[in-house]
């Protein structure tokens, strides 16, 4: 299955606030790419542009699947999801008054996913056993970390080909951070999932990412072809490796 | 003077009356309970449906229940249009939709009232059918067939809606849509279309409920005002959006009302049933079957 | 034309303006619209004949009071102070009329009442005249209980809507029953907007009354009758009905059909021979035509002819007095008997009819789904008053329903 | 006193003086009858907004408070022949109590649950009054006005002036609340009650306070209506129209500023008075319906919001 | 152990239990927090940290158990009273006053919770200085709805600080921050602590917990599994298994 995402010269703004300026990046089939950048720099905005939740002012987002190119900047979110793009949004965005299971089932709303509900559910429960235990609990009453797992699980339910993950480690315990990141890595390996992940936890991110971008004030300032190149970058040193022990 | 017979009778009639209240509230349980649309024009649509049923019954001698079924597609479309209007004018623009929506729907209700008056005049109207005006003898108790019809329709609607909302993808999406629209978008569902569809269903249900309304009692153009309190109370007492809960709450209301009506001073009936509602809310602010996080 | 002639023509052309509010929306709208149509037909008749006072046309100034008491003070102030109408008619029914009674009294204005009940009893305005045939307050209950007792009734049940008019009826009924030592075995007021009457009727039936007096409002009357038919009322009931508002309206009667049979209920006008007076038939010919266009009660027996009669009363007074001087008009109305399409009318000092002309009539042989049947005589047999009587009571109630 | 306050109080004084002069020189009664109704709605809308606008607790029970005011007056007149000021004071006191009770009862209810509770309350109170024979019960009651007090020579003129006083009182209170810590607290609890609590806002007490003030004002406004109508019956006194109209006026005017409800009430109240004496048929209701729809659609933040936007746009343009 | 041991505890929680239906989120939790202490609270997701905070701040009623603050039982007090007595908290999932600007959000706290009577001008100053410390100065007049997730979290903390608390509870205020930003916020908390404000910090970012805390407590499934100095706790076998996973 050939899939690639190419973003070219993207501009996006919220009224007066410019969130993206001329951002470009590529994700190839089967890759895990990290998107780094301190808060407010436009990571989420970029993710939202890909998912069709924010309309860019300029630029192209093209998703090529099996040779067919789709211009995502013209498609609605629903159509983008239909193409196999799933997103784990920042802040989880669960349906708090539905049960865990119902949240997962909604993840399978997309037509292509309805056929493989059982298989996907097994994958999710295997990855996050607590979700199986708490199937009938209302999502809104789950703890912060449990909610994060549910959000990832829900995205997996749609049998995605491209997974966009916006800060999966936020609010997770160290154990879970590494587990979650590992899980995403496994998903990438086992299911051949292509992953674009915004993440602050640099050390965790580079465990599974093969390369990464750094975004500052809406501009992609670094496009590193390898993890080492990232580690050697000045900005990374200053922002992520400075105080850390 | 206490009579066991009367009490039993009151309970039976109360349950059936409650089913009727349930049937006319179910649509609201979807539109308001699930979609958060403050649909105070719900009873006005209900009365409109009754008049449509009346029209078919009067001019083409269609059985009112059949007429109710016949108009559901029309009401479904009406619901689609109504929601579109509400969406374009309120939800799309965001903030404070609920409160202004109330004023909006009051306006819509007034407009519907007047349109009915202009078309049908102010006199009350009713329909004829074999089951109206006769009763089923069950030992000492006589149960009007009208109410049995209400019972059947209400239970059928409740079961159907409950199944639809919990077993189908569309149904689950309807329940999710008021909680987080953008997230629903990420599931590949268009929240606006989902809401529109749900509103269509809520309004279609009104078609049948409107038939019940005019089967149970005659209607007049301003009857809707009497039902604003009742329907909203039922939906709220149930705790927003639970179909089974709506039916149960409605039955509680119906039984309480009937018992007070027969056993104690009839004129106190509304005070008692609404006091009960207040009591329920004071103890369980989320309603009887409400789930709040 | 000479200047003098021109002036004369202009004086003739100044219309006589009659102001009123009329419920055209809200709970009383059905009656209000029919009533107004009656008045309008009168206006057109008078104008067609060249008007009053040597050629002055009648002009109506009508506002909608939404069936509410809170609207009428401002409306009548507008009529008096801004529109400066020549004469005032009251709105249909008691509630909207009540707030303007003190006002017209204070200003010394004549008010032609319209179907309100005992609205002048506390105010005591001597320029008030009610067009309705009620008469003394208790005559309503008296006539119904007379019929019931004559049929052998020894106990009574009372069911009344918890609303203004029905409660007033219920009150007089209680008084009359107490005076006659008639035991009251059931006495309930049901709240407005009651949907289902089965359980109330069941409770009423359990009390085993002989006479059942119902004072209900239009939305409820049909529900009560249906419940009676479904639940049954018991064989001991001799007469049933009395004060059910709504069973006079064509649409309701058509829909109730055979359920009506046996009910003895009040009415104001019925197509029985004894009810036709000069102009009555012509009036209904016109009414029938216009009601259809206006989507108003097609029969219009209950209110419309009395609206017309209001006009006739005032017209006769104006013709007799020769001016619009209110005191003189009132004096004339009080002291004379007037011919109208609903029969001769004479007032007692409180402005109500000297004698009651409320009919008590029993529905007979009514079939389902037929409006026209009500236009022929015999469907509602008049039992009271004696002078208009057109048949005898069939009792008990169950027997009369067959 | 700030510049704003001086302007406000000057304006209020000018308004009251104008109203007073009007009662002394205008002979035609109609302006007072119609004006009274408009003033009554201004006061109601302003009072409603204290709870409904600032605190976001949408009260459907305006008619309950109004009706209780009416019947408080009826009772006092019938039992003691109490004078008008006493009727109004008693109305306010009872309204405060009622607001307090409503507040206590609905402490834990939020959003639409509160609104439904107010509907329930209205029906309970109306039923109670309907069953209270002493004040006429369902049949209603006619009451006689006493002689008018100097310097007025007509009772309705006096009522008009009294209602104007109530308007100024209501507006002054509403304005004070908006500009004080109370207003900020109410706004905070409207946004998020738990967060407000944890930021130190005594949400329950503020809600109660808003209920009490709003209730007292609405009842006080209802009290003189007994003397205005000289008649009271439950169906009219507790008419749903008071609730709907008051809500509509506040929303049409805008609830973000104390002047919103005033503008809304003047606009809608005047239109209704005009319609009553012009179109005057079911089309009247149609116009009301259309107005409601058009205004909430066309001016989402109310007229106040519209004005602000226009002004804001111009300012931006100037910069 | 530090000097502050001799003083009575600022916050004393004894035998606290909290149930949701049949599920027990907190099990017989007892702990003392000393005045001026920097206290770290860790534990796996769903272990009951936020629940404990909710019990302290009054968002939840506790059934068995007592909460003493400055030797007074506060278990029955409403949240705003607790806030006024000096307990402030930030919410893990931000709860801004949406109809207000950032500045107004803080003004609510200053209006209602700040005890001393100060002039309006002083309040503005105090508000601006808090905003500046949090790096939110430029956003003072921006509507709260326009903030990004992280800015919202900062505002949560700023609003809590504006109540001038004696005890500040920060629930994952640093989640999602880059390490340089974590350092910024950490410095801020440390400087607050140096002004004798007691701080309970919930955080999953270990470097922050280590650097900040004088004492750390680890919850698991509603029970305390370890409490002590940061290094002790980190070295604890059960903490490693349940939480750190290293
Ligand atoms: N809905 C919005 N309206 C206005 N401005 C917004 C909105 N959402 C985000 N912004 C602004 O856009 C800029 C980029 O935000 P974005 O959420 O993309 O950043 P981010 O890199 O994901 O940051 P974080 O780490 O905080 O999640 C920020 O300055 C933010 O304040
Ligand atoms: N209102 C509630 N109803 C039912 N269960 C609840 C409720 N609130 C919390 N819980 C449960 O209580 C447990 C403790 O939750 P809490 O939010 O305290 O965890 P936490 O330690 O803060 O976790 P995290 O680090 O993920 O935020 C969780 O299992 C959660 O699902
Ligand atoms: C509708 C009717 C009951 C009106 C009644 N005639 C009255 O005076 O109020
Ligand atoms: Mg982000
Ligand atoms: Mg937590």
UniProtKB/TrEMBL annotation, chain A:
One Gene Ontology term from the biological process aspect of the record: L-amino acid transport
Domain of life (superkingdom): Bacteria
Key words, A-Z: Amino-acid transport, ATP-binding, Nucleotide-binding, Transport
Keyword Transport: yes
UniProt xrefs under SMART domains: AAA
Keyword Membrane: no
GO MF annotations in UniProt: ATP binding; ATP hydrolysis activity; branched-chain amino acid transmembrane transporter activity
Pfam families according to UniProt: ABC_tran
Occurrences of domain ABC transporter (ranges): 5-242
PANTHER family registered for this protein in UniProt: HIGH-AFFINITY BRANCHED-CHAIN AMINO ACID TRANSPORT ATP-BINDING PROTEIN LIVF
Family named by the database record: Belongs to the ABC transporter superfamily.
Function summary: Involved in beta-(1-->2)glucan export. Transmembrane domains (TMD) form a pore in the inner membrane and the ATP-binding domain (NBD) is responsible for energy generation.
The protein's name: Branched-chain amino acid transport system ATP-binding protein
UniProtKB/TrEMBL annotation, chain B:
Gene Ontology biological process: amino acid transport
PANTHER family cross-referenced by the UniProt entry: AMINO ACID ABC TRANSPORTER PERMEASE PROTEIN (PTHR11795:SF445), BRANCHED-CHAIN AMINO ACID TRANSPORT SYSTEM PERMEASE PROTEIN LIVH (PTHR11795)
Main location: membrane
Single GO term (MF): transmembrane transporter activity
Organism: Bradyrhizobium huanghuaihaiense
Keywords: Amino-acid transport, Cell membrane, Membrane, Transmembrane, Transmembrane helix, Transport
Keyword Transcription regulation: no
Membrane topology: Multi-pass membrane protein
Family: Belongs to the binding-protein-dependent transport system permease family. LivHM subfamily.
Name of this chain's protein: Branched-chain amino acid transport system permease protein
Superkingdom of origin organism: Bacteria
Compartments where located: Cell membrane
GO cellular component: plasma membrane
InterPro entries, per database record: ABC_transp_permease (IPR001851), BCAA_transport_permease (IPR052157)
Pfam families from the UniProt entry: BPD_transp_2
TM annotation in the entry: 7-28, 40-57, 64-86, 98-122, 143-165, 197-219, 231-253, 259-283
CDD domains associated with the record: TM_PBP1_LivH_like
From TrEMBL, chain D:
Protein location: Cell membrane
Membrane topology: Multi-pass membrane protein
Molecular function GO labels: branched-chain amino acid transmembrane transporter activity
One GO location term (cellular component): plasma membrane
Transmembrane segments: 7-27, 33-51, 58-80, 86-105, 112-135, 155-177, 208-231, 285-307
Keyword Transmembrane helix: yes
Pfam families, A to Z: BPD_transp_2
Keyword terms: Cell membrane, Membrane, Transmembrane, Transmembrane helix
Name of protein: Branched-chain amino acid transport system permease protein
TrEMBL record, chain E:
Positions of the ABC transporter domain: 11-246
Transmembrane domains' residue ranges: none
One Gene Ontology term from the biological process aspect of the record: L-alanine transport
Keywords of the record: ATP-binding, Nucleotide-binding, Transport
GO terms assigned for molecular function: ATP binding; ATP hydrolysis activity; L-isoleucine transmembrane transporter activity; L-phenylalanine transmembrane transporter activity; L-valine transmembrane transporter activity
GO cellular component labels: plasma membrane
UniProt-listed Gene3D superfamilies: P-loop containing nucleotide triphosphate hydrolases
Pfam families: ABC_tran (PF00005), BCA_ABC_TP_C (PF12399)
Function description: Involved in beta-(1-->2)glucan export. Transmembrane domains (TMD) form a pore in the inner membrane and the ATP-binding domain (NBD) is responsible for energy generation.
PANTHER family, per the entry: AMINO ACID ABC TRANSPORTER ATP-BINDING PROTEIN, CONSERVED COMPONENT OF ABC TRANSPORTER FOR NATURAL AMINO ACIDS-RELATED
Record protein name field: Branched-chain amino acid transport system ATP-binding protein
Organism field: Bradyrhizobium huanghuaihaiense
């Amino acid at each position: 299955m050939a899939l690639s995402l190419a973003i070219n010269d993207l501009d996006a703004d919220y009224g007066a606030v410019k969130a993206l300026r001329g951002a470009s990046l590529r994700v190839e089939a089967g890759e895990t790419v990290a998107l780094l950048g301190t808060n407010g720099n436009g990571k989420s905005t970029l993710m939202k542009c890909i998912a069709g939740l924010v309309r860019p002012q300029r630029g192209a987002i093209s998703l090529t699947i099996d040779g067919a190119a789709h211009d995502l900047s013209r498609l609605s979110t629903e159509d983008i999801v239909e193409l196999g793009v799933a997103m784990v949004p920042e802040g989880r965005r669960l349906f708090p008054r539905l049960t865990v299971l119902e949240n997962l089932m909604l993840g399978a709303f997309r037509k292509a996913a309805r056929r493989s509900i059982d298989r996907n559910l097994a994958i999710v429960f295997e990855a996050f056993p607590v979700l199986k235990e708490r199937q009938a609990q209302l999502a809104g009453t789950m703890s912060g970390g449990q909610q994060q797992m549910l959000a990832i699980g829900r995205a997996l339910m749609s049998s995605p080909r491209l997974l966009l993950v916006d800060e999966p480690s936020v609010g997770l315990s160290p154990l879970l951070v590494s587990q979650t990141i590992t899980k995403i890595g496994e998903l990438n390996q086992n299911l051949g999932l292509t992953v674009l992940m915004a993440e602050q936890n640099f050390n965790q991110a580079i465990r599974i990412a093969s390369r990464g971008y750094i975004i500052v004030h809406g501009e992609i300032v670094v496009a590193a072809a390898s993890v080492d190149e990232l580690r050697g970058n000045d900005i990374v040193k200053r922002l992520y490796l400075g105080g850390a022990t | 003077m206490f009579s066991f017979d009367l009490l039993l009778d009151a309970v039976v009639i109360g349950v059936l009356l409650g089913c009727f209240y349930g049937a006319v509230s179910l649509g609201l349980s979807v539109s308001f309970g699930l979609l958060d649309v403050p649909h105070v024009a719900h009873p006005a649509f209900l009365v409109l449906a009754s008049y449509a049923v009346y029209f078919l019954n009067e001019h083409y001698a269609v059985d009112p229940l059949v007429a109710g079924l016949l108009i559901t597609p029309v009401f479904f479309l009406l619901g689609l249009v109504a929601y579109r209007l509400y969406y374009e004018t309120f939800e799309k623009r965001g903030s404070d939709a609920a409160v202004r929506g109330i004023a909006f729907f009051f306006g819509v209700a007034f407009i519907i009232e007047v349109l009915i008056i202009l078309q049908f005049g102010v006199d009350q109207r009713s329909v004829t059918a074999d089951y109206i005006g006769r009763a089923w003898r069950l030992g000492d108790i006589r149960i009007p067939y009208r109410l049995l019809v209400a019972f059947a329709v209400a239970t059928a609607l409740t079961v159907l809606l409950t199944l639809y909302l919990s077993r189908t993808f569309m149904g689950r999406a309807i329940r999710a849509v008021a909680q987080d629209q953008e997230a629903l978008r990420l599931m590949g569902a268009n929240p606006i279309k989902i809401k529109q569809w749900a509103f269509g269903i809520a309004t279609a249900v009104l078609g049948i409920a409107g038939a019940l309304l005019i089967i149970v009692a005659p209607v007049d153009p301003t009857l809707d005002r009497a039902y604003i309190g009742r329907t909203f109370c039922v939906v709220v007492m149930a705790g927003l959006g639970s179909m089974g809960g709506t039916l149960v709450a409605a039955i509680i209301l119906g039984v309480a009302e009937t018992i007070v009506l027969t056993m104690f001073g009839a004129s106190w009936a509304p005070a008692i049933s609404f006091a009960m509602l207040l009591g329920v809310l004071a103890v369980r602010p989320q309603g009887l079957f409400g789930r709040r996080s | 034309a000479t200047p003098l002639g021109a002036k004369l023509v202009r004086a003739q052309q100044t219309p006589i303006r009659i102001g009123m509010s009329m419920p055209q929306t809200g709970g009383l709208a059905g009656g209000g619209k029919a009533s107004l149509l009656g008045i309008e037909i009168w206006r057109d008749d008078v104008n067609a004949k060249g008007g009053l006072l040597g050629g002055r046309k009648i002009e109506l100034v009508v506002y909608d009071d939404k069936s509410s008491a809170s609207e009428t003070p401002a409306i009548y102030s507008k009529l008096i102070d801004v529109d400066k109408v020549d004469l005032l008619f009251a709105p249909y029914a008691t509630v909207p009329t009540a707030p303007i009674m003190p006002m017209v009294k204070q200003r010394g204005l004549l008010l032609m009442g319209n179907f309100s009940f005992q609205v002048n009893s506390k105010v005591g305005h001597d320029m008030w005249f009610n067009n309705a045939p009620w008469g003394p307050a208790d005559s309503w209950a008296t006539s119904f209980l007379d019929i019931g007792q004559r049929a052998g009734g020894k106990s009574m049940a009372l069911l009344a809507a918890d609303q203004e008019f029905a409660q007033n009826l219920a009150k007089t009924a209680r008084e009359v029953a107490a005076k006659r030592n008639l035991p009251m075995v059931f006495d309930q007021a049901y709240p407005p907007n009651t949907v289902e009457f089965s359980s109330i009727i069941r409770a009423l039936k359990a009390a085993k009354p002989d006479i059942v007096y119902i004072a209900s409002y239009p939305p409820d009357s049909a529900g009560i009758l249906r419940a009676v038919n479904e639940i049954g009322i018991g064989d001991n009931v001799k007469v049933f009905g009395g004060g059910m508002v709504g069973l006079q309206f064509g649409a309701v009667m058509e829909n109730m059909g055979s359920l009506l049979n046996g009910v003895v209920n009040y009415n104001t006008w019925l197509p029985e021979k004894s009810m036709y007076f000069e102009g009555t038939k012509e009036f209904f010919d016109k009414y029938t035509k216009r009601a259809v266009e206006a989507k108003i009660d097609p029969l219009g027996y209950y209110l419309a002819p009395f609206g017309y009669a209001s006009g006739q009363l005032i017209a006769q007074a104006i013709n007799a007095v020769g001016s619009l001087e209110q005191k003189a008009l009132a004096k004339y109305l009080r002291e004379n008997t007037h011919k109208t399409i609903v029969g001769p009318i004479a007032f007692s000092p409180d402005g109500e009819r000297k004698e009651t002309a409320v009919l008590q009539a029993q529905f007979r042989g009514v079939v389902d789904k037929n409006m026209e049947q009500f236009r022929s005589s015999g469907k509602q047999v008049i039992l009271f008053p004696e002078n208009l009587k057109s048949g005898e009571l069939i009792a008990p109630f169950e027997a009369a329903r067959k | 006193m700030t510049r704003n306050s001086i302007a406000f109080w000057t304006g209020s004084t000018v308004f009251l003086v104008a109203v007073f002069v009007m009662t002394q020189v205008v002979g035609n009664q109609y302006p007072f009858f119609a004006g009274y109704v408009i003033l009554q709605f201004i006061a109601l809308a302003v009072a409603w907004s204290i709870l409904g606008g600032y605190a976001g607790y949408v009260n459907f029970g305006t008619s309950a408070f109004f009706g209780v005011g009416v019947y408080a007056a009826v009772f006092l007149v019938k039992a003691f022949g109490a004078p008008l000021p006493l009727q109004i004071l008693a109305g306010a006191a009872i309204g405060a109590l009622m607001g307090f009770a409503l507040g206590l009862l609905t402490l834990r209810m939020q959003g639409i649950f509160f609104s439904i509770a107010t509907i329930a309350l209205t029906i309970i109170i109306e039923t109670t009054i309907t069953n209270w024979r002493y004040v006429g019960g369902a049949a209603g009651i006619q009451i006689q006005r006493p002689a008018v007090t100097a310097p007025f020579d007509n009772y309705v003129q006096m009522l008009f002036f009294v209602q104007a006083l109530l308007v100024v009182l209501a507006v002054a209170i509403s304005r004070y609340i908006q500009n004080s810590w109370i207003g900020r607290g109410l706004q905070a609890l409207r946004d998020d009650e738990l967060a407000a609590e944890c930021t130190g806002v005594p949400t329950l007490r503020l809600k109660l306070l808003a209920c009490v003030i709003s209730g007292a004002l609405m009842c006080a406004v209802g009290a003189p209506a007994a003397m205005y109508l000289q008649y009271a019956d439950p169906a009219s006194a507790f008419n749903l129209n008071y609730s709907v109209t008051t809500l509509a006026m506040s929303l049409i005017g805008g609830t973000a500023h104390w002047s919103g409800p005033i503008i809304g009430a003047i606009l809608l109240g005047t239109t209704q008075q005009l319609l009553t004496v012009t179109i005057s048929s079911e089309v009247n209701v149609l116009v009301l319906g259309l107005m409601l729809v058009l205004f909430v659609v066309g001016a989402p933040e109310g007229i106040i919001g519209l004005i602000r936007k226009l002004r804001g746009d111009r300012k931006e343009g100037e910069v | 152990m530090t000097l502050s041991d001799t003083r009575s505890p600022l916050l004393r929680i004894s035998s606290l239990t909290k149930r949701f239906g049949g599920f027990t989120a907190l099990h017989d939790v007892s702990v003392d927090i000393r005045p001026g202490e920097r206290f770290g609270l860790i534990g796996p997701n769903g272990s009951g940290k936020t629940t404990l905070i909710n019990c302290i701040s009054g968002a939840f009623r506790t059934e068995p158990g007592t909460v003493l603050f400055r030797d007074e039982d506060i278990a029955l007090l409403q949240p705003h009273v607790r806030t006024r007595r000096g307990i402030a908290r930030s919410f893990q999932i931000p709860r801004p006053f949406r109809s207000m600007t950032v500045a107004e959000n803080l003004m609510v706290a200053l209006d209602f919770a700040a005890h001393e009577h100060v002039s309006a001008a002083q309040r503005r100053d105090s508000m601006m200085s808090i905003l500046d410390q949090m790096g939110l100065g430029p956003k003072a007049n921006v509507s709260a709805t326009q903030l990004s997730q992280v800015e919202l979290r900062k505002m949560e903390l700023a609003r809590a600080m504006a109540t001038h608390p004696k005890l500040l509870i920060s629930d994952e205020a640093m989640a999602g921050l880059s390490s340089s930003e974590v350092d910024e916020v950490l410095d801020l908390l440390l400087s607050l602590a140096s002004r004798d404000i007691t701080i309970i910090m919930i955080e999953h970012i270990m470097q922050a917990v280590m650097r900040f805390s004088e004492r750390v407590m680890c919850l698991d499934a509603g029970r305390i599994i370890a409490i002590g100095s940061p290094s002790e706790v980190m070295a604890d076998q059960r903490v490693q298994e349940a939480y750190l996973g290293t």
